[in-house]
Specification:
Elements (H helix, E strand, L loop, with lengths): L3 H13 L3 H24 L3 H20 L6 H23 L2 H28 L1
Helix pairs in contact: 2-3, 2-5, 3-4, 4-5
Protein name: Flagellar secretion chaperone FliS
Organism: Tepidanaerobacter syntrophicus
GO cellular component, one term: cytosol
């Protein structure tokens, strides 16, 4: 059996030792996880859990947006995407709409995959 404190320490160490690129991927993975948990909660009519998980996904999207370096042109496009995702999460939370959550999950997965591919290419060219 895994010790809960040991697991928490492992997670903490993983985060603290991760590269900025890996941290971005971890944020996307976390947002995707919370969206999936929210979808399950909506399906099970667990409103409290759905709200909690959507709010956690919103927090991650807000953090992604806040971390943008606006000196890059692509950041302007990412602000628009993150703003759209955030607004979609709010709407999904109000309506408890799995279809909206499906759209958000799909977009987050695409962003994570794109970021992962960019990291791989960056490492190959280094």
């Amino acid at each position: 059996m895994i010790n809960a404190n040991g697991y928490q320490q492992y997670r903490y160490n993983s985060i603290m030792s991760a590269s900025p690129e890996r941290l971005m991927i971890m944020l996307f993975e976390g947002a995707i996880k919370f969206v999936r948990l929210a979808k399950k909660a909506v399906d099970e009519k667990d409103i409290e859990s759905a709200n909690y998980n959507i709010a956690r996904a919103e927090d991650i999207i807000a953090e992604l947006e806040a971390s943008l370096d606006m000196s890059y042109e692509v950041s302007e496009d990412l602000v628009k995407i993150y703003d759209f995702l955030y607004r979609q999460l709010i709407e999904a939370n109000i309506k408890k709409d799995v279809n909206i959550l499906d759209t958000v999950e799909s977009m987050l997965t695409d962003l994570k995959d794109t970021w992962s591919e960019a990291c791989i290419r960056l490492k190959k060219n280094a």
